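Hi Q.,

Before the meeting this afternoon, I wanted you to have the adenosine-5'-diphosphate prediction in hand. No need to reply - just skim if you have a minute. The sequence and ligand are here:
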Amino acid sequence: MEKVLIANRGEIALRILEACREEGLSAVAVFSQADREALHVREAPEAVCIGPPPAPKSYLSIPALMAACEVTGADALHPGYGFLSESAELAEICAAHGITFIGPPPEVLRLAGHKVATKERVARAGVPVLPGSPPLESLEEAVSWGKRLDYPLLLKAAAGGGGRGIRLVGSEEELRALFLRAQEEARLAFGDGTLFLERYVPSPRHVEVQILADAHGNVVHWGSRDCSVQRRHQKLVEEAPAPGLPPELRDRIEAAAVLAAKALNYVGAGTVEFLVEGEEFYLIELNARIQVEHPVSEMLVGRNLVREQLRVAKGEPLGYRQDQIELVGHAIECRLNAEDPGRDFLPSCGRLLIECLPGGIGVRLDTAIFQGMEVTPYYDPLLAKLITHGENREEARIRMNSALRRFRVRGVATNRDLLLEVIAHPDFAAGRLSTDFLERVVSSP
Ligand code: ADP
Ligand code: ADP
Ligand code: MG
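Predicted structure with the ligand bound:
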């Protein structure tokens, strides 16, 4: 493995580029015409245009990516997150062309891409999951499972992601009214209309575990994260370790994550997501890719997770054991999005004017923004990830408060003030977290 094609954009493309440099690999960027000026294109030693506007589709074109590998002689591909990162099809096509896909093998992607199949597999290994239905073939089957499982339930898309395709159903009437539309929407959004029902947990915490496995059977975890501060099932604030969990419960969750990874024959970096309800926890899914919030775990471990992905893809053994991983201090991440709180958080576009950016001890800004950048409507609205690290949670929180105040941009609306409100809220300060946090405590969620 010598040359990595970066099949993504934005901050994650820059992270991959830097990790390639550290690992002594060359790298190639790809871009849509809408991203001609983008930082990942200008920073990369080589870049290939893979498509004209309308731009959103460009990074999803497997033929264009394969052609870019062919033209540039890239022998590996890193998909980043989102886009094709969990595509078993892409992993298979890469393999057929002798290109190393930097991620789990296709069989693992196929299994992890299906929430019901994942739950079935890990449950057999003894990992707790929420009661739910099998994949639902018809409305009548859904109705009969609804009776058995008892309302309220969640109707979820088996192939869903990004917080989409999740609906609360309070009764059989609601299920009847929603089912066919949900099926159609899932088909359009995820290319797979499979739905299932799952017990609804009213006010859980979202706790996940970063796992890392090499191709030689070694599996470690990098500790827990709490991602309970969400808007419409999408994470907004994440932190590591998950605060306030009894150590014994945290140990059990981490052990369950490793067990789940082993049950799936996992290779690479991945995230095992759980809901925690009191002393109980349940696996909800496994994200078979690098995740947006991975930096909070890196801050505790002191290693570059993207570089670890490259090492695993090269076939290197991890080279360290679980008891050699020390988790130091506490880290918090805020997702700064270009969206307008005054207009129901619709994406906000325009030319970016940077007045001031945060920095200093314990402050990390992962971003691809630059002065005068045009924020377009084509992609997800993430502008920057602001990460702070401290000896303890309170130090990280105070640093986040100052750092957010110093994130001052104009030209687009951002969710900065909402993030400040969260960070400063007494419930957040006290670690009273649950997935309904925003609705519960913030004036304008
Ligand atoms: P994470 O789980 O890594 O915290 P998200 O679930 O928000 O992050 O997803 C990571 C990125 O991928 C986001 O930019 C999101 O918009 C996008 N994404 C995730 N899943 C899908 C999907 N199934 N289809 C399209 N985009 C997705
Ligand atoms: P995605 O693939 O879109 O990330 P997940 O299954 O991971 O979907 O769920 C996203 C979020 O939706 C969770 O973090 C949680 O807030 C909520 N959620 C998912 N399943 C349940 C459930 N059974 N009960 C309550 N909330 C849930
Ligand atoms: Mg999830």
